[in-house]
Design a protein that fits this description.
With about 600 residues, this protein is α+β, with helices and mostly antiparallel strands. The chain has 16 helices and 16 strands. Among the domains are: about 70 residues, SH3 Domains (SH3 type barrels, Roll), CATH 2.30.30; about 190 residues, Dbl Homology Domain, Chain A; about 120 residues, Pleckstrin-homology domain (PH domain)/Phosphotyrosine-binding domain (PTB) (PH-domain like). It is found in: Cytoplasm.
Length: about 600
């Protein structure tokens, strides 16, 4: 095999130990170099997609036979430009957007944020790069080219003895009209933010007009419920982003981009960006629904026809629907880069600094809501294992397990004591009893509404209300009925953990009220239905694997087919504290075997 042929083969080698997070696509706005015939009114003729044998296939083949292809990441003029720079001796750097974990010695592993020297970009999907002394192939879609290629590898600006900036690296280097190197770097970042926003708007428009509009014309193929599942609230996102990009353009200084003050735009829209939470939470459901539909050729041909009529790049619908998830995760990265090149004296500095924190908080909120929605399935499964359950489901009022453990409950009259297992959720405390013979079986006994309760710390000694001596005790007192519940822990540290847990429960309830977090009735019913099915079959329900598999089947880029390291909408920063939901339950509450 010649070296030229080998070069084309090696990058596409799939290795069973390669395991990374797919980005799907990050390529909106790539130039289309080929014109394409469009139906006059820009819509699909309903008769052209009838159920007659061969009609949809013929339409699809007509489009394919015209051999229209559009640019995608690493292709077209952009890819040629990268290779020209490399062949001219220039050093081209790319920044890792996602972790690429691999055990293949031919691939280059890295973490999000690492800077990679691109040494060859001839192949569309796999590039050859270097980090320090390591070289290897890596997926082109996992990185983005650095906005400022002329920036030194060290943190900019360089420092000299005495803590002052090296003038040779910053202040004395100027680029026309009195711009310093740092100003030019800021110009590059501002231009990228404006450019990518405009491309993103075009991308959202293509989805709304190219797919949703056409799907609504085919009531025989799609119900409104299906469309809501597939596309989520992407139309709301489109409307929000159109307003946002207009606000950005008003703040954009065309003559001197480095003087633009865009930080205030992000601060103004930080609350509206929370609509991405609903979209990100729904995205796995969208992938599963698409997976089900695309098993039928009729839907495959329909979606492809929609894409071609709208002149969209050669990526499947699930890939297009991934971009809003990526976009909200990319804002903190862009703002961090913008802050890096904004002088503290710049009028935009404080706003950019505040905007970076605000967008990190938005991302944190989205991740937290995603985690909470994942928890409702676990809560439903837990309830399905409790015997003799009475009253409403836990999910009617709660969505988070705060703490759980064993306590002694003392009740009136005669100060009767009972050993019970307690589960503290937001809004309620559930009491269960262990089976005398089978200690892994729990029976439902009662629950306490935490919204009406105040927590009272009880000193060791004789309690006046119950007329008994207590140790490691606390009370729950109902403000309305004056009802009092007395609890005793085995150890002082266990008591303190319970008191802290009650504080956390109130804090969680208040935070949910402030952020407007809620779970829909459909989500609650679905979680209980899934738990019921799993309880009867006794088999674990594979919830996330189809979602991963579906992501891995995207047309571009071709990625290793093993499981990814993490879901794409989990940001590299800030890293959230892992949920202790299952640790609480598995440690303190054995389940039915």
């Amino acid at each position: 095999i010649t070296s030229a042929v080998a070069f084309d083969i090696l990058p596409l080698k799939l290795h069973p130990f390669s395991q990374s997070t797919p980005t799907g696509l990050d390529c909106v706005g790539w130039k289309r170099h080929i014109s394409f015939p469009v139906i006059t009114d820009g819509t699909l003729d309903k008769t052209a997609l009838t159920d007659d044998v061969g009609s949809e296939e013929d339409l699809y083949e007509d489009f394919r036979s015209s051999n229209h292809r559009y640019g995608h990441p690493g292709g077209g003029g952009e890819q040629l430009a990268i290779n020209e720079l490399i062949s001219d001796g220039s050093v081209v750097y790319a920044e890792a957007l996602w972790d690429h974990v691999t055990m293949d010695d031919q691939e280059l592993g890295f973490k999000a944020g690492d800077v990679i020297e691109v040494m060859d970009a001839t192949n569309k999907e796999w590039w050859w790069g270097r980090i320090l002394d390591s070289e290897g192939w890596f997926p082109a879609s996992f990185v983005r080219l650095r906005v400022n290629q002329d920036e030194p590898m060290e943190d900019y600006p360089l420092k000299v003895e005495g803590g002052k900036e090296d003038e040779s690296s910053s202040g004395t280097r100027r680029f026309g009209m009195g711009q310093t190197t740092k100003d030019q770097m800021r110009t590059n970042v501002i231009n990228e933010i404006i450019s990518t926003e405009r491309d993103y708007i075009k991308h959202l428009k293509d989805i709304c007009e190219g797919y949703i509009k056409q799907c609504r014309k085919r009531a025989d193929m799609f119900t409104e419920e299906q469309l809501k599942t597939i596309f989520g609230n992407i139309e709301d996102i489109y409307r929000c982003q159109k307003k946002f990009v207009k606000a950005l353009e008003k703040k954009f200084n065309k003559d001197y981009p480095h003087l633009s003050e865009v930080g205030s735009c992000f601060l103004e829209y930080q609350t509206e960006f929370q609509i991405y939470s609903e979209y990100c939470n729904n995205h796995p459901n969208a992938c599963l629904e698409l997976s089900r539909l695309t098993k039928v050729n009729k839907y495959v041909y329909f979606f492809e026809a929609c894409r071609l009529l709208q002149k969209m790049i050669d990526i499947s619908l699930d890939g297009f629907l991934l971009t809003p998830v990526q976009k909200i995760c990319k804002y903190p990265l862009q703002l961090a880069e913008l802050l890096k090149y904004t002088n503290p004296q710049h009028r935009d500095f404080k706003d950019v600094e505040a905007a970076l924190n605000a967008m990190k908080n938005v991302a944190r909120l989205i991740n937290e809501r995603k985690r909470r929605l994942e928890n409702i399935d676990k809560i439903a499964q837990w309830q399905s294992l409790i015997e003799d359950w009475e009253g409403e489901d836990v999910l009617v009022r709660s969505s988070e397990l705060i703490y759980s453990g064993e306590l002694t409950k003392i009740s009136h009259p005669q100060a009767k004591s009972q050993q019970r297992m307690f589960f503290l959720f937001d809004h309620q405390l559930v009491c269960c009893k262990k089976d005398l013979l089978r200690r892994d079986i729990l029976y439902y006994k009662s629950r306490i509404n935490m919204d009406d309760m105040e927590i009272l710390d009880v000193e060791d000694g004789k309690d006046k209300d119950f007329n008994i001596s207590v140790k490691n005790a606390f009370k729950l007192h109902c403000r309305d009925t004056e009802e009092v519940h007395l609890f005793c822990a085995k150890k002082p540290e266990q008591k303190q953990r319970w008191l802290k847990a009650f504080e956390n429960e109130r804090r969680q309830v208040q935070l949910d009220q402030e952020t407007g977090f809620s779970i829909t009735e459909v989500q609650k019913k679905q979680a209980m239905l899934n738990a019921s099915k799993q309880h009867h079959t006794g088999k674990p329900k594979a919830i996330t694997r189809p979602y991963y598999d579906f992501l891995m089947r995207q047309k571009h880029p071709t990625l290793p087919t093993t499981l990814p390291q993490q879901q794409v909408f989990m940001l590299a920063e800030p890293k959230r504290k892992p949920s202790n939901f299952w640790q609480n339950i598995s440690r303190l509450t054995p389940f039915r075997k």
